[in-house]
Amino acid sequence: MSVTYDCIVLGLGGVGSAALDHLARRGQRVLGIEQFRTVHDRGSSHGETRATRKAYFEHTNYVPLLERAEKLWRELECDTGRSLLEACGLFIAGPADGPCVQGCLRSAGEHKLKLEQLSPPEARRRFPNFEFDEADSIVYEPGAGYLRVEDCIRSHLERARQNGAESQFETAVIDWEPTDNGVRVRTERSEYEAARLVITAGGWATDLISDLGFNLKILRKTLLWLPKTGDAYDAGPVFYYVRPRGDYYGFPSLDGATIKLSEHTGGDPVDRPEDIDPALLERDAEPLAEFARQFLPAADPQPTRHATCFYTMSPDGRFYVDRHPEHPQVAFAAGLSGHGFKFASVLGEVLADLAIDGETEQPIGFLGVEERI
């Protein structure tokens, strides 16, 4: 006989763990199911850090969600005693008339955010361990920084458990189906029923909402940790460079010995997330090493370690966050397109709202599916 819940959450990465937490805090009897172990390295929510910023070049409509996300991250820190969000500052360097710099300025102007504009000489004086092209325009957001991703997930799961949530790890979901009273979920272990379902399955989302016809593309990405000199890069900032060859970003040192570097653009397409090759390939390392030689003078371009992850890309780079058009008892977030983790706290709240109330106060209309599929 099926076990019955108010809500089931499929996938307990960054967004799923937050959704589980918010549902439990709202008094729901909730079950979270994850195919891998707790805080695993098989998806898109690992690798120590993710950037967080508000002067958002991708779209000004994201800014209110980012402001709410920051408040929720700070509340989670207070509740769990963990340091999750480090506001060490972040700069973006690129063409003055390019979409990144112009998008940052647009968001900052529209939402009255603090953003500084620096010339290359000013940026070199402010950030002596970085190099800049003379043609660069640099925008610096002092309140931006990074999130400690594994601790963010642990914290959401911990608070969810404290509020009565149940979780099953290393449990694969076979399928789900709508019922007269909600949904039925079949796993390799058992069968469960619930009034509502939340799907936050990352690169596996298309298996669970295939009927929506999302054209999601999986891109393999590589993260490198480079040795550094002395105390260089210890205090920040997070950095993002727009170069002719691609966009590169990185983070302050967490261990005092290395600096993390990756490329936001590019990536090898793969058919399935489980097909990703975890090895460090020459074509992964070479462009990052070349970038480091040019712009990170206090770093050694030869990495000491690496990790692989993936982006789940939507066709337009915007998230899908909505209720299923045919089954309104099902809410989902998918296609976070390589920039979603910073939103995990607020997306968890939004998904809880959609599951329980059928609507949310947060401005997610531009992330809906009705006009995009």
UniProtKB/TrEMBL annotation:
Residues 6-354 form the FAD dependent oxidoreductase domain. It holds the Pfam family DAO. One of its GO terms (molecular function) is sarcosine oxidase activity. Keywords: FAD, Flavoprotein, Oxidoreductase. Its cofactor is FAD. Its EC number is 1.5.3.1. The keyword Flavoprotein applies. InterPro entries: FAD-dep_OxRdtase (IPR006076), FAD/NAD-bd_sf (IPR036188), MTOX (IPR045170). This is Monomeric sarcosine oxidase.
